Amino acid sequence: VPLLVGFHATGGSGEGFLSSFSAQALARGFAIVAPDSRVSPAGDFTWEVGTEPGEITPDYTHALNCIDELREEHDLLIDPQHVLAAGYSGGASSAPYLASNEDLFSAFASLHGGVFPGGVGDHIVRGWFSTGEDDDLRSPDHVQDHLDSLVPLGFDDLELHVFPGGHGLSGEEVDALVDWWLGDL
C-alpha cells in the first residue's frame, strides 16, 4: 500500500491534515499517517526540525513511531516505491527533513512552506514544492528560494507548483500532488 506521512500546520492537528487528503486516499487506495506534533515551549502545536546534520528531534522519532504503530496494528505492507512525507505550512519543513534522513521515503512534498537545509540528510528523493499565487506567508519566490537551497545538496528532481489562491490548501493542489506522487497507480 502506498503511504503518505503528513505534517500539519502550526496550531493544526493530524486530524485536520487527514481531512484534506482522506477523499484521495479512499479513491486512490493509499494509507495516511498524520500524527499531532508536540507542544512547543511557547505552547503551540508545531514541529521541531533538525538544523544540523544527523540531528534527531523528538518529533522525528514520534513520526517514525506512528508509522511503526500503523504497520503493526494493521499488518500493513508498504509499497517502498510510493512513500511520501508531506507537510503543510509550519509542517512543510518536516517533510524534506524526514524523507532525506530515512530510506523508507521515496518523495517529499513541502506545501506552502520551506526547508531547513542544515537538517537535510543524504537520502536523495524527488521533491514537490507548492504554494498559492497570492500566498502572503509563503510567496512563490520565497518557496522557490527554499527549493533552490536543496540543489547544492544533490537534489535534482524538484518541482515548484503555483496554484490560484492564498495560503490554504485547495482541492486542485491536493489532487495534483497525489497525481504527481502516485502517477498511474
Strand order of the largest sheet: 2-1-3-4-5-6
Shape: globular
**Helix fraction?**
25-40%
Which regions are unreliable across 5 or more consecutive residues at pLDDT < 50? none
Radius of gyration from the alpha-carbon trace, in angstroms: 15 Å
Description:
- The chain has 185 residues and is of the alpha/beta class.
- The protein contains 5 helices and 6 strands, in the order βαβαβαββαβα.
- It has helices at residues 14-28, 58-74, 94-99, 140-148, 171-182; strands at residues 3-7, 31-33, 83-88, 107-111, 126-132, 158-163.
- A 6-stranded parallel beta sheet has the order 2-1-3-4-5-6, sandwiched between helices.
- Strand 5 (126-132), helix 4 and strand 6 form a beta-alpha-beta unit.
